Amino acid sequence: MTDGIPHSVVLTDLTRRFGDFTAVDRLSLKVESGEVFGFLGPNGAGKSTTIRMLCGLLRPSSGSGLVGGFDISREPEKLKPAIGYMSQRFSLYPDLTAMENLDFYTGIYLAGTRIDPMMKASLLSSVGLEGIGRRITGTLPTGWRQRLALACAIAHEPGILFLDEPTSGVDPSGRRSFWEIIYRLASKGVTIFVTTHYMDEAEYCDRLGFIYEGRLVALGSPAELRTSSGCGAGASLEDVFVRLVSSDGSGEAGS
Fold first, then answer.
1. Which of 83, 78, 67 is nearest to 12 (CA)?
2. What 3-state class would DSSP assign to 81?
3. What is the pLDDT of residue 112?
4. How is 202-233 classified by DSSP, letter by letter?
5. Selected residue with higher pLDDT from 18 and 133
6. How would you class 202 by CB atoms within 10 Å of its CB: exposed for 0-12, middle for 13-18, buried for 19 or more?
């Protein structure tokens, strides 16, 4: 970690069990302020469960977590103004216009406060959605709806942004555009915690955490993980992930 830079996320042995099933198993990590942190793993690895705990939506079974200095177990309501959250499933109201969705979600984050129309128009422009404020959300293409969901998550200018599979179902061109927006936010000091199962998107992150069957199996920059896995500088991150999972003993690699 860089000296003098506070951590936006601090997790210590964070665990979530559902009956006898352990979805997240003793997860410990730190994410620096302003960092683009990628949380990668296959479907069912525990990524979404982790995100929900960090946003105060799901109580941990054990362990602890601080997000923006707030305890995720004891102070979930205090998290709302500090974070933005874009869920894995498209969560906006399809029958509302883009502007109406912005009003609704801003009100949730800021206890009924609304932003003025000029700011909303500027916000839509910042995610490449100029002039669609009156469009019904359900009629928008998938990529546009994802960008609208991002606009709703950042309307209150949070310092920490949680994105759960934000580019799922979006074509490659749309995914690149989405990551350009993420970079712009990070350049302004916003901490980005993003989950994905697209290994090519890992290259866009400052650091990565690989999760498999609920356990953190590796942590570091893409270059560091290539080195620690022994795969070499030219290896794909998918190959790196498979090697690290196999050497960690978490399961049959590639299964």
1. 67
2. helix
3. 57
4. GGG-SEEEEEETTEEEEEE-HHHHHHHHT--T
5. 18
6. buried
